[in-house]
Amino acid sequence: MGGNWKMNTDLAAGVELAEDALAALAAGGLEQSVDVAVFPPFPYLQSVGRALGHSNVLLGGQDCSAEASGAFTGQVSAAMLCDLGARSVIIGHSERRHGLGEDDDLLREKLAIALESGLVAVLCVGETLSQRDDGRAEAVVAAQLRGCFGTLTAEAAMRVVVAYEPVWAIGTGRTASPDDAQAMHASIRGVLGDLYDSAFAARTRVIYGGSVNAKNARAIFDRPDVDGGLIGGASLKADDFVSICRAAAEAWSAT
Ligand code: PGA
To answer: What is the CATH T-level fold of the domain 2-253, as seen in this structure?
Structure first.
């Protein structure tokens, strides 16, 4: 379960959010049953990392550069994330694909350098509303997957988590129905099977993101191909985020 804080919190609030989430996860006995990562804004990584201490909660960056180092004003390298204790990174969030024009060619390079640096990469894919309305959702997501995985070896690609995030569901209060999420996750696994093999497709985590909250989480996580969630707005309240983690643990223990 990933908490994508986006450009929210200030330093004190970010540290407090991490501390509160950690305490609630421990109180709920969820630390062992759900793999959790938080993705704070870059400037707060180190402080949030300190707050997480030696817990099982992973620290992650919201993006990284496709470049290793050099004259790239404003960018943050994968190695810098590692230096700060991050072990994961989000690649290709739709707010970067659509807001900042990042395309699959760039994202493939980012993915490669993140994996070379030893990070777990959360690769976001998802269609816009017009693409869905045109009946092209699965084709768009398949093209994103093929474009971003490129020629990555199965060994390198093992550290990729795929996040299906329909653009129209992010921050809008609209979620994909559990059926739609399941259908797309199964389709994603089909593409991964073509790119690698069925064992690879079966063990790759495919998580859902887009207006997940404490109320709708369980129905989504109940679906067999939904392995977790990438949570934006609801991750900014520790109680909500931990309720979503609990919903996931309950869904999985019921299967
Ligand atoms: P949301 O964001 O939960 O606020 O819709 C999800 C995401 O962008 O990862």
So the answer is: TIM Barrel (3.20.20)
Q: Hey, which residues are catalytic here?
A: 93, 165
pLDDT in tens, 105-140: 999 999 999 999 999 999 999 999 999 999 999 999
What string of DSSP letters covers the chain? Answer: -EEE-TT---HHHHHHHHHHHHHHHHHTT-TTTS--EEE--GGGHHHHHHHHTTSSPEEEES---SSSSSS-TT---HHHHHHTT--EEEE--HHHHTTS---HHHHHHHHHHHHHTTPEEEEEE---HHHHHTT-HHHHHHHHHHHHHTT--HHHHTTEEEEE--GGGTTSS----HHHHHHHHHHHHHHHHHHS-HHHHHHS-EEEESS--TTTHHHHHTSTT---EEESGGGGSHHHHHHHHHHHHHHHHT-
Q: Which atom from ligand 1 is nearest to the alpha carbon of 234?
A: 3
Residue-wise pLDDT for 230-251, tens only, equals: 999 999 999 999 999 999 999 9
